[in-house]
Specification:
One of its GO terms (molecular function) is glutathione transferase activity. The chain is built from 12 helices and 5 strands. The chain is α/β, with parallel strands linked by helices and 285 residues long. It has 2 domains: 79 residues, Glutaredoxin (3-Layer(aba) Sandwich); 141 residues, Glutathione S-transferase Yfyf (Class Pi), Chain A, domain 2 (Up-down Bundle), CATH 1.20.1050.10. The N and C termini lie close together (9 Å).
Length: 285
């Protein structure tokens, strides 16, 4: 029975699992769980992952959640996955495990909290928390600094010190690419000081091409939507004056200004993909 991957491409861990499967030629069915519609909290999905989060997999009768556990499982369960992803060498594998364990309480906590409290939260009905964003900003910067100075010290191209990426590289880079939805100046402020981190991101992207960009396409679309919304926000204060001026010249022109401004107000979550929708009923496998 074909592997099923339950995921939302707006989710950083989901993207890591999807890219890994694609890069390594693992045959699977992608089942979209739309977190913007809270499908991860539905009873049918909680039969797969009681924690109500994505991603999760179903492989025959076996169900598994938590992206790092999934990545480790895929390496071991599917023949032909190159050793560099999760080496058989005990010392190298332990080093990768240490990065993955560090990730959740440091880089991920900082990145997710910051992005949610600055960009992603409000469209989902969550009020932004400036204090939480400020604290997350510090943790995010500290985490990037640690990656730059420790795991990428010297001539290290990837986190485990090899010439090819591991599951740790893929997981952490997918985390950092979530910063794409930020205001461009803010994103540059955060990533700009870390030249080795930027090169490492590009190296991981190149090593997983073309699947990296394909899976991240929904994020790039969301980025464009948020940029449009920011443009609308900047010009909102001037809208009454623009409409008034236009109406004095021509009533039709005034209406055109309003319509043009309104066109910027789109839901960021309308980014669509050709993924399989979550069925109304999930059968046991």
């Amino acid at each position: 029975m074909k592997l099923k991957v339950y995921a939302d491409r707006m989710s950083q861990p989901s993207r890591a699992v999807l890219i890994f499967c694609k890069v390594n030629g693992i045959e699977f069915e992608e089942v979209k769980v739309d977190i913007s519609k809270r499908q991860q909290l539905t009873p049918q999905y909680k039969e797969i992952n009681p924690m109500g989060k994505v991603p999760a997999i179903v492989d025959g009768r076996f169900k598994l959640f938590e992206s790092h556990a999934i990545l480790r499982y895929l390496v071991c369960a599917f023949p032909g996955v190159p050793d560099h992803w999760y080496p058989a060498d005990l010392f190298k594998r332990a080093k990768i495990n240490s990065v993955l364990d560090w990730h959740h309480s440091n880089l991920r906590h900082g990145a997710v909290t910051y992005v949610v409290n600055t960009v992603l939260g409000p469209p989902m009905g969550q009020q932004a928390n400036p204090q939480a964003a400020a604290e997350a900003d510090k943790l995010l910067s500290a985490s990037l600094s640690k990656i730059e100075s420790f795991w990428l010290k010297g001539n290290s191209k990837f986190l485990a010190g090899g010439l090819q990426p591991s599951i740790a590289d893929l997981s952490l880079v997918c985390e950092i690419t979530e910063l794409e939805v930020l205001d461009e100046e803010d994103r540059i402020r955060i990533l700009g000081p870390y030249k080795k981190v930027q090169q490492w991101i590009e190296s991981t992207r190149s090593a997983t091409s073309p699947h990296f960009d394909e899976v991240h396409n929904i994020l790039f679309k969301a980025k464009a939507k948020f940029q449009e919304q920011r443009m609308f926000g900047i010009n909102a204060a001037a809208l009454p004056q623009l409409c008034s001026l236009a109406s004095r010249v021509n009533v039709v022109a005034g209406a055109a200004v309003v319509v043009k401004a309104a066109s910027y107000v789109d839901e960021a979550w309308e980014c669509s993909s050709k993924q399989t929708s979550l069925p109304s009923k999930t059968t046991s496998t």
